[in-house]
């Protein structure tokens, strides 16, 4: 990946692709919002990136489906993926690299040497421990050794997705390879975990840019998750929440309640036990593009003890079944409820969604104009 281009070149390249400076700034602002930083922090992140100071990222793949990489690349508008990839210097990534074999191994060693103590290590996938780690080897080295090697000189370490955070699907019972997450291998080191199956790319971008710009990491919970993105449950900011509070539930897939957008709790929704910002920061910059938004119960993928452990359609206990007094009144005649109706917390982050949607629309419009010009 190009690590030498100046900021002017970066902006010129993006503008040539139909992405304006304003849209570039918006992507940075959304990324800042994803980790709880104000808009001015996004502006500083953009300035730094536009100045050519792109953080070096070394990205390791272990036991996984590559879905987290796919979610980064499959944004609804190609311009957004390009902005994200232009904001970082992706110096090693097994999926995206054109090189192979000894060439790619050398590239990793060069990236480590050139950015010692400063690069960001992103881990995608679980690490198998059974039989000396023989079930995941790249270039003759097992995942445990490679992870320890690259983590030793990293400035920041991010476990991206549920597999890297705590084992995910690879660690589901009976866990035949004794798979686990990066924090369990890198004991004593700070590992930012961004669980999700897949993780939201803006949460990753926010952490990377915060580290690159301010040399800090977001405030983490006891599982290493950034509090701003993972402190609240899906249930607290779910657009279907007023239906839950009013006792309106889909009883089975495709029934009238399901078609009307009613609560999915009785279909097994794990939203009440799942901490994540999916409802507020949709995937692919498409409003409503998240499991509950498209009519499927939340499976609890950001929780170590829920996804891949509790059956998808099994209902769970709800800790606080009644709505807090700060929630707006429930109107029984509402069949569909927007995110703005679910409370003050939702409103704050809803602004981020709005900004993302506006940015996405703008990007699309800019691209169409660009295509017309061509
Ligand atoms: S149970 Fe699920 S669908 Fe129903 S309000 Fe909670 S998070 Fe939303």
UniProtKB/TrEMBL annotation:
Record keyword Transmembrane helix present: yes
Chain ranges passing through the membrane: 336-359
Domain named NADH:ubiquinone oxidoreductase-like 20kDa subunit: residues: 65-210
The entry's keywords: 3Fe-4S, 4Fe-4S, Iron, Iron-sulfur, Membrane, Metal-binding, Oxidoreductase, Signal, Transmembrane, Transmembrane helix
Origin superkingdom: Bacteria
Protein's UniProt keywords contain Zinc: no
Pfam family of the protein (one): NiFe_hyd_SSU_C
NCBIfam families attached to this UniProt entry: hydA, TAT_signal_seq
Family according to the record: Belongs to the [NiFe]/[NiFeSe] hydrogenase small subunit family.
Protein name: Oxidoreductase
Organism per entry: Anaeromyxobacter paludicola
């Amino acid at each position: 990946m190009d690590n030498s281009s100046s900021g002017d070149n970066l902006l010129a390249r993006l503008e040539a692709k139909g992405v304006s400076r304003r849209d570039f700034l918006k992507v940075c602002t959304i990324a800042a919002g994803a980790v709880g930083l104000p808009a001015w922090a996004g502006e500083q992140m953009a300035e730094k990136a536009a100045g050519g100071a792109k953080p070096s990222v070394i990205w390791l793949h272990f036991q996984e489906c590559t879905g987290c990489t796919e979610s980064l690349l499959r944004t609804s508008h190609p311009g957004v993926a390009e902005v994200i990839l232009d904001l970082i210097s992706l110096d090693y990534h097994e999926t995206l690299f054109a090189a192979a074999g000894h060439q790619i191994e050398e590239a990793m060693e060069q990236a480590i040497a050139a950015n010692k103590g400063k690069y960001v290590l992103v881990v995608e996938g679980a690490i198998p421990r059974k039989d000396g780690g023989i079930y995941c080897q790249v270039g003759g080295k097992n995942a445990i050794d490679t992870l320890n090697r690259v983590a030793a000189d990293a400035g920041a370490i991010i476990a991206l997705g549920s597999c890297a955070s705590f084992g995910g699907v690879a660690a589901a019972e009976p866990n035949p390879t004794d798979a686990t997450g990066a924090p369990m291998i890198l004991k004593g080191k700070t590992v930012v975990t961004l669980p999700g199956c897949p993780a939201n790319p803006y949460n990753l971008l926010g952490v990377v840019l915060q580290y690159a710009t301010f040399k800090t990491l977001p405030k983490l919970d006891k599982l290493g998750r950034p509090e701003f993105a993972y402190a609240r449950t899906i249930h607290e900011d779910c657009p279907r929440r007023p239906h839950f509070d009013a006792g309106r539930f889909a009883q089975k897939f495709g029934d009238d309640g399901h078609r009307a957008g009613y609560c999915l709790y009785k279909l097994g929704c794990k939203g009440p036990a799942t901490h994540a910002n999916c409802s507020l920061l949709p995937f692919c910059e498409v409003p409503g593009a998240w499991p509950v938004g498209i009519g499927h119960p939340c499976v609890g993928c950001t929780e170590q003890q829920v996804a891949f452990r509790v059956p998808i359609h099994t209902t769970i206990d709800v800790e606080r079944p009644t709505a807090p007094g700060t929630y707006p009144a429930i109107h029984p005649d509402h069949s569909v409820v927007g995110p703005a109706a679910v409370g003050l917390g939702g409103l704050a982050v809803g602004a981020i969604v709005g900004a993302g949607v506006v940015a996405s629309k703008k990007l699309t419009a800019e691209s169409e104009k660009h295509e017309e010009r061509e």
